[in-house]
From TrEMBL:
Keywords: mRNA processing, mRNA splicing, Repeat, RNA-binding
Pfam assignment, any one: RRM_1
Domain RRM stretches: 112-191
Lineage: superkingdom: Eukaryota
GO MF annotation, one: RNA binding
Source organism of this protein record: Teratosphaeria nubilosa
Entry keyword Repeat: yes
Protein name: RRM domain-containing protein
GO biological process: mRNA splicing, via spliceosome
Length: 378
């Protein structure tokens, strides 16, 4: 038997794309979801976990429904990804945050390099680069685009089979070690010295500073310290663009085999083109949000933001298919920055567009560089 209240209510829309067309529905920033007030005055919240409207006061029913879809080891009470959470954790804008930055103790630099042994005698920097840049962007010299790869020779000038590779980001070190330590440098070629060994490098390799200090001398235009500082900032900006454009693990470059694509999750509506234009740093924020949330389900090997797609497309590659499947199931229909996400496993036919590091004009580069200068000066 249908209740009187149910008879008086108009049907509730079940497709999030239709919510904007219903006057009864509004988005609650507090609840981080949509709310609906029906004709009888009753309040309902949209539960993205079960894809249905739930009475606000019926917490027991909501908990029961959530338990049905709960994934072991994952806190379903936390939002999928909260883009505002990290910004709030960084502190509010104003004097308080600036004071906090000044009081923050200086942290020791993180290692960004790996030391490699048991390399073939006839290898070279280019071959080493092709092998190791699959796991991260390799740093470059300040005076040019020369990859920071060093080969070691004995006193007679003979290559010792040892090399140093410096990455731009410290996260690449663990990934390179995981994927390359204990394997042959060239497939099918076993060396007398055994398989390649890849270990974290010590800090003795740092003959040049990654970034000149932002002291008073470096801020004075015309000084050598200032020129070095400007050079370092420009190189840092260039490497950040390469990092955003890095697509060696781009799913579109993966051979079309089902086993590979089963590990890739395609997420839509992560951003709008306007939001990226308003906040150039949003791409890195999105990647960090996804990694923070996605690593609850398994190891993430790459995140690609397709910043030229109107649908706000991001792909996430996991180390195994089960983690990808669980993440896609949990993410589909969840809210992010006021938008409803669509997540699914890639089928290999997708072709998405993203910008190249060469797409930035001089004005864009100068604007980014100026912002970076201001951050260093704080």
């Amino acid at each position: 038997m249908v209740s009187t209240d149910a008879q008086q209510r108009a049907p509730f829309p079940s497709n999030p794309e239709e919510f904007d067309n219903d006057e009864r529905i509004s988005y609650s920033k507090v609840a981080q979801t949509y709310v609906l007030e029906d004709e009888t005055g009753g309040e309902w919240e949209w539960s993205s976990k079960v894809n249905k409207w739930v009475p606000v006061t019926d917490e027991a029913l909501l908990a029961q429904q959530q338990s049905i879809y709960k994934i072991e080891g994952v806190d379903e009470n936390a939002p999928a990804m909260d883009p505002k959470k990290r910004k709030a954790a960084d502190g509010d804008s104003g004097n308080a945050s600036k004071a906090a930055k000044k009081q923050k103790p200086e942290q020791p630099p993180k290692n960004k390099a790996v030391f490699i042994t048991s390399l073939p005698e006839d290898t070279n920097k280019e071959e080493i680069k092709k092998t190791f840049d699959r796991y991260g962007v390799i740093a470059e010299s300040l005076d040019g685009n020369v990859p920071r790869i060093k080969l070691y020779y004995d006193e007679n000038g003979k290559f010792k089979g040892e090399a140093l590779v410096v990455y731009f980001r410290p996260e690449s070190v663990d990934l390179a070690i995981t994927m390359l330590d204990g394997v042959d440098f060239r497939m099918g070629q076993t060396l007398p010295t055994g398989p390649m060994r890849v270990v974290p490098a010590d800090q003795s390799f740092k003959s040049q500073k990654d970034q000149p200090l932002a002291d008073e001398q470096a801020k004075k235009k015309g000084t050598t310290a200032n020129r070095d500082r400007q050079k370092a900032m420009k190189k840092n900006e260039e490497m950040n663009r390469k990092l955003a454009d890095w697509d060696d693990d781009d799913p579109q470059a993966i051979p079309n085999t089902s086993s590979r694509h089963d590990k890739v999750v395609v997420i839509k509506h992560m951003f709008t083109l306007k939001s990226l234009a308003d906040e150039p740093e949003a791409i890195m924020d999105i990647k960090e949000d996804i990694r923070e949330d996605g690593e609850k389900y398994g190891q993430i090997t790459n995140v690609v933001v397709y910043d030229k797609e109107d649908d706000g497309v991001v792909t996430v590659r996991f180390s195994d298919a089960t983690a990808a499947k669980d993440y896609a199931k949990a993410t589909n229909g969840r809210a992010y920055d006021g938008r409803w996400l669509k997540a699914s496993i890639a089928d290999g036919s997708e072709r998405y567009k993203k910008s190249s590091k060469y797409d930035l004009d001089d004005a864009d580069e100068e604007a980014r560089l100026q912002k970076y200068r201001e951050e260093l000066d704080e």
